[in-house]
Amino acid sequence: MSDVVRVSVGGGSPEGTNCAYLLPARGVVIDPGPPSDTAWTALRDGIADAGIAITDVDHVLLTHWHIDHAGLASRLADRADASIHAHADDTLLIGDYAAARERRCRRDRRVLERWGVPESVRDDVSSADTPSPVPDSFAVTPHGDGDTVVDVEFVHTPGHTVGHVSFRTDEGIFLGDLLLPTYTPNVGGSDTRLDDSLGQYLASLNRFESIRTDGYPGHGMEIEIPTAIDEARRHHRNRARAAFRAIATPEPSARTPWDVARELFGELRGIHAKFGAGEAAAHLRRLAELGPVERLDGTPVRYRPAIDSYPTGLLLTP
Ligand SMILES: [Zn+2]
Ligand SMILES: [Zn+2]
Predict the structure, then answer these.
(1) Is 311 contained in some domain?
(2) pLDDT grade for 1, boundaries at 50, 70 and 90
(3) Which of 142, 240, 252, 303 is at 20 to 30 A from 155, Cα to Cα?
(4) 41 lies in a domain?
(5) What is the pLDDT of residues 290-299, one digit of tens each?
(6) What crossing angle do the helices spanning 271-290 and 119-128 adopt, rounded to 10°?
(7) How far, in Å, CA of 165 to CA of 62, rounded?
(8) Are residues 244 and 114 located together in one domain of the fold?
(9) Do 125 and 263 belong together in one domain?
(10) Of the ligands numbered here, which is closest to the C-alpha atom of 66?
(11) In this structure, what CATH number is given to the domain that contains residue 38?
């Protein structure tokens, strides 16, 4: 019996195919996958191939509330008579699904307006954000940093979402969307509750600074954690410099996160409008915190350069 079994559960996420992970000896499934019949079949087959029965699954652990990770949790828990566990900050978005989703959609609209996203694009984002086929509500046990379930430790790693966690085990670290092999996880648009999402994300990376064990991401193949951390930091340093350039050239001006997103990414539609505006907002917000950029509050919020040129070697990390 392998210690860790990866099951590719498909899914329409822009981040690529989702991975569910089984820890057969512990009766644990991490991030069962999106709420589709195809994913369910893949998960069921994966559990059988691992040499255990579905009823041997006792605990479903979730790295964060996103539906491509958490969507199958209630179906699996029902079938296996298992319990579901997540960080307290994401529990409602998972288990109080219908009501929390309505609140989230309203908040997303408000936040997109603050970022300067035009009404027609906000409508487009809203109509692409359809309800998923999961029960309106079900039980999810809330946890905090350092909690354990069958010796699997919750490590709170906010940034991609407020309650994002990684799981530390003897078998390795399960990263969810903290670090991915070919794609930098979205920060800013992936949970509109966060204020300084980039600051929180970079602080979360600091927690795994000296880790040498294998990292199992929520999408794609295993990664070397130190290399992935270096790449994520470099990516965000470059993007912050590009965001500064967008408000500093050709003339310094006060611009919204949406203006900057269009400059950085070009045409943006549907979910990409939310992710793109969120990325720009997160970098400008972080730069305002550090000094090179001044924030002009209001709806929409605007940012303008506070200095003539971008500081060389600026580290964004808190
Ligand atoms: Zn995610
Ligand atoms: Zn994901």
Answers:
(1) no
(2) low
(3) 240
(4) yes
(5) 999 999 999 9
(6) 120
(7) 8
(8) no
(9) no
(10) 1
(11) 3.60.15.10
In a domain, 102, yes or no: yes
* Chain segment 114-166, per-residue pLDDT in tens: 999 999 999 999 999 999 999 999 999 999 999 999 999 999 999 999 999 99
In the structure, what pLDDT confidence band is assigned to residue 56 with cuts at 50, 70 and 90?
very high
Domains: count for the chain: 2
How many residues comprise the chain? 318
Q: What token pair was written down for 111?
A: 């936040």
Domain with 291 in it: 238-305
DSSP for 147-200, written as a single string:
-EETTEEEEE--SSSTT-EEEEETTEEEEETSS-SSSPPP-SSS-TT-SSHHHH
Residue 218 and residue 64: Cα distance in Å, rounded? 10
Same domain assignment for residues 48 and 10 = yes
**Is it the case that residue 11 has pLDDT exceeding 70?**
no
What sections of 71-118 are H helices per DSSP?
A: 73-80, 88-95, 97-114
How far away, in angstroms, is 59 Cα from ligand 2 center? 20
C-alpha of residue 177 to centroid of ligand 2, in Å: 5
- Domain membership of residue 313 (yes or no) is no
Average pLDDT taken over every residue of the chain: 95
Ligand 1: centre distance to CA 171 (Å): 22
Regarding predicted confidence, which is higher, 318 or 90?
Answer: 90
